[in-house]
Amino acid sequence: MLVVALGGSPSTRSRSGVLLERAKLALQGKGVEVVTFQVRDFDPQDLLHARFNSPAVCHFLETVANADGLVVATPVYKAAYSGALKTMIDLLPERALAHKVVLPIATGGSIAHMLAVDYALKPVLAALKAQEMLQGIFADDSQIAYGEGSAAPQLAPSLEHRLGAALEEFHSALARRPQPVEPGLLTDRLLSARWSI
């Protein structure tokens, strides 16, 4: 299984980035291959001008096309996902998320931004024809505490539990996805099948 972890924060110190990293580690612990793309790792000109011939953009599009699922994490600004994330999503072709499972994750300053997942992020991902859109996770800033010095950030127990449950559901959804059948194999099966009328 291949999962793309897509980070929409332009900041290196990011609570949504913390959740994305936790999700990545948990999925890797289950044997899932995870490839991470952070918006800040792209040349801004490639994103703003939709340079589809850029090697970084080509790699991103190819990896998403081959993925079984996406975990998308973003901070919430002005009651919506980050504009930087939108520029990345805009690079994806129509139906880019068909046959894929998507887990949206968002962080914001307060629970007042909780509905940004349902009313801002999910509709955009659904427009790309995601096969299965999971409920998603929203965390307010008070639920993610940065440690002193090099200490790892700490999650509130309730958030840790919700994230773990969402990732279990995500992994189960990935496992039950129908696997595509090679066209040649399907033809052979049809030709060798016993038919009766």
Please describe the structure with a list of short key phrases separated by commas or semicolons.
197 residues, alpha/beta, 7-stranded mixed β-sheet, 7 helices, Flavoprotein-like_sf, NADPH-dep_FMN_reduc_SsuE, FMN_Rdtase-like_dom
Describe the structure.
There is one protein chain. With 197 residues, the chain is of the alpha/beta class. It has a single domain (2-192), classed as Rossmann fold, CATH 3.40.50.360. The chain is built from 7 helices and 9 strands, in the order βαβααββαβαββββαα. It has helices at residues 15-29, 44-48, 55-66, 83-89, 116-127, 157-175, 183-192, and strands at 2-7, 33-38, 69-77, 80-81, 101-108, 132-133, 137-140, 144-145, 154-155. The strands form 2 sheets. Strands 1, 2, 3, 4, 5, 6 and 7 form a 7-stranded mixed beta sheet that branches. The N and C termini lie far apart (40 Å).
In short:
This protein is an alpha/beta fold.
Tally of extended strands? 9
- Radius of gyration, Cα only, in angstroms? 19 Å
CATH architecture: 3-Layer(aba) Sandwich
Number of domains: 1
Task: Quickly give the structural class.
Answer: alpha/beta
Name the average pLDDT.
Answer: 88
CATH top-level class: Alpha Beta
CATH superfamily: Flavodoxin domain
Uncertain regions: pLDDT < 50 for 5+ in a row? none
Report the β-strand fraction as a percent range: 15-25%
Order of helices and strands: EHEHHEEHEHEEEEHH
CATH topology: Rossmann fold
Tally of helical runs: 7
Shape: globular
Q: Approximately how much helix is present in the residues?
A: 40-55%
The main β sheet shows up as: 7 strands, mixed
* N- and C-termini, Cα separation: 40 Å
